[in-house]
Amino acid sequence: MRRLLARRMKFHLLGAFVVSVGCATLYKFIVAEPRKRAYAEYYKSYDPMKDFEAMKAAGVLECAPPK
Amino acid sequence: MANHSQFGFQDASSPIMEELVEFHDHALMTALAICSLVLYLLTLMLTEKLSSSTVDAQEIELVWTILPAIVLIMLALPSLQILYMMDEINEPDLTLKAIGHQWYWTYEYTDFKDLTFDSYMTPTADLPLGHFRLLEVDHRVVVPMESPVRVIVTADDVLHSWAVPSLGVKTDAIPGRLNQTSFIASRPGVFYGQCSEICGANHSFMPIVVESAPLANFESWSSLLSS
User: How does it sit in the membrane (chain A) (predicted)?
Assistant: First the structure.
């Protein structure tokens, strides 16, 4: 029983730290990084004029009605 | 605009909003780390059978002082970076004045001659098919895409707030005061927002619609409206 509390506390404090860093890492690699990549991929081959023409044809723009 | 049951931000349509979304991910990740740590320790304490008669724990005191300080610095640095980024002098190509009234917006394009109009919400009964309830207006704010736009926001009567989430803009409209904000619409499209400061009975019914288009289309729209 000698130093039992100290041992358990040290073990669980380390465990808590590992769990929290693990949660943060999971969030980073499941949500944050894919989102950054999605934005980068979207704008890598983005053609604003093509997008604009599609919106114009669909009739969603007040300043550029479809002919 | 937001979908029903949407939890997160709308897709960013300006560089500042992209930075804000990234910062939010960073802050949420930090919050998740802290919450999971607290939850773990809480569960442990609630299931723990041993009692403690600790009187002194210098090492852990040092850890739980230094660690939060580091976490706060990790949050503050990107936050201040974005704050200063928002205030950069960016030589706007267009200046637009948005004046809040009860319960509509007036837009003045003073760079042009006689380009001023009011923007009222389209009543639900008059909405064409496919349009968005409580979000559409009779006259939209048109801006050129990929150009810095400065918006000067004020109000005529009570407090309002000019907000367009997708562009990362929210600026209070205060009577007797001019507040300045700026944005760059990264792509063409239609961006919706709503008044964000309680202003009376129809506070929820004075939306904002910003339409971004190529410069040529913006110019033909502005000359059509000015004439």
Answer: Single-pass membrane protein
